[in-house]
Every structure is written in structure tokens, then in C-alpha cells.
Amino acid sequence: ASEVVISALLLCLEDGDEDVRASAAEALGELGNASEAVINALLLRLEDVDYFVRYKAARALGELGNTSEAVISALLLRLEDGDFRVRVSGVQALGKLGNASEAVINALLLRLEDGNRDVCSSTAYALGELGNASEAVIDALLLRLEDGDNSVRYSAAQALGNLGNASEAVISALLLRLEDGDNSVRYSAAQALGNL
Questions:
Q1: Distance CA 192, CA 160 (A)
Q2: Within 13 Å of residue 135, how many CA atoms lie on the same side as its CB?
Q3: Distance CA 177, CA 154 (A)
Q4: pTM of the entire structure?
Q5: How much is the pLDDT for 41?
Q6: CA 29 → CA 21, 47, 61, 69, 186, distances in Å?
Q7: Counting C-beta atoms within 10 Å of the first and last residue's C-beta, which end of the chain has fewer, N or C?
């Protein structure tokens, strides 16, 4: 995208209307320009008073691929956001960025206990993307296979398949999910077993 377009969108991030700010953040993420000015402007929008702007800014940062300490730290803070949609976008962005540091993994393990099923499901998926198959991650995902929500069980099975840990505990737990009352969980468990 041209500098004119980027500059105009950066100005829109300061607009008085939250929908305009959110749309500008989304557009910047889609354009793929990860310049310092764009990243810094999106980091500021992670603190916006409007949840939708924070949500779109986190998503944009995940799309842009900048894994600097400033970006990771800011996204980690959004995992504590009062709005579940912002926590979801923060989790998803961290999964896409691929930073499997101890701080990121520990923060995501805490989000597996989030009171919102969308956050838990997104977190399980992100853990599968990050490739950290530590005992703590595997044990936490095995627990989520027993979750009361089918989307969480689905994502936990998918993550376990992505991580490739073919231990007896993982295989046994996934075999049990082949009998799950929800067809999407059975599907995910079958896929996961095939990935091991």
C-alpha cells in the first residue's frame, strides 16, 4: 500500500468515532505494512476505551507478524482485558505470532481456565499452534478434553494432534473422545489421532 494510504489510515486511528478507529486498525492489519509507525499506532489502540477497537488492534498485530517484546508484552496485557472478545483476539494474535516463550505459554495456560468458553477454545487452539509440547501444556490440554463445552473439547483435541505427543495418556484420552456426544469433538479426536 502506498504511504498516502498508510498515513490516512494512521490518522483514522485517532478519529473520534470508535467504528472508524476499528476499521482503520483492521485495514492496517490487512495491508501488511509492519512499519514502526503502524505497529506503534496499533499498540496505542490496544489501550482504546472501546473494546471493538482493542479487538481489531490485537487482530491486526497478529496479522502483521511483528514479534518484538513491545508487541508480545502488550498482547499479554490484553489477555486480562475485561471484554472476552479482546481476550480472544489477544490469544489468537499470540498463537499466530509463534512466540512460545515461557511468559507466553504460562499466560495462555492461565487463559485455559478463563470463565468464557470462546477464550478457552481459542487458547487451546493457540497452544497447538505454538508447538510447545511440555508436560504442563499437554496436561492442561488433557484436562480441557473433559470440558463441559464441546468447542473447548474440539480445540483441545485439535491442539493435542498438532503437538504430536503420542504418549499413552494422550492416545487414551483422544480414544475416549471418539465416543463423545458431540460429532465435532469425535471428528477432531479422529483427526488428532491421525496426526500423531
A1: 7
A2: 0
A3: 9
A4: 0.94
A5: 98
A6: 13, 17, 7, 19, 35
A7: N
Nearest alpha carbon to residue 154 among 133, 119, 183: 183
Tally of CB atoms within 10 A around 16: 6
Q: How far is the C-alpha of 75 from the C-alpha of 72, rounded, in Å?
A: 5
Say which amino acid occupies 84: F
Residue 17's CB is within 10 A of a number of other CB atoms, namely 10
Distance CA 5, CA 9 (A): 6
- What is d(CA 147, CA 51) in angstroms, rounded to the nearest whole number? 27
What average pLDDT does the segment 40-56 reach? 98
DSSP state, 149?
A: S
- Average confidence (pLDDT) over 138-156: 97
Query: Is there a contact between 75 and 41 (Cβ–Cβ < 8 Å)?
Result: no
Return phi, psi of residue 99, to 5°.
-85, 110
What is the dihedral angle through the alpha carbons of 191, 64, 76, 155, rounded to the nearest 10 degrees? -10
End-to-end CA distance of the chain: 42
Cβ neighbours, 10 Å, residue 3: 10
Residue-level pLDDT at 50: 98
pLDDT at 1: 65
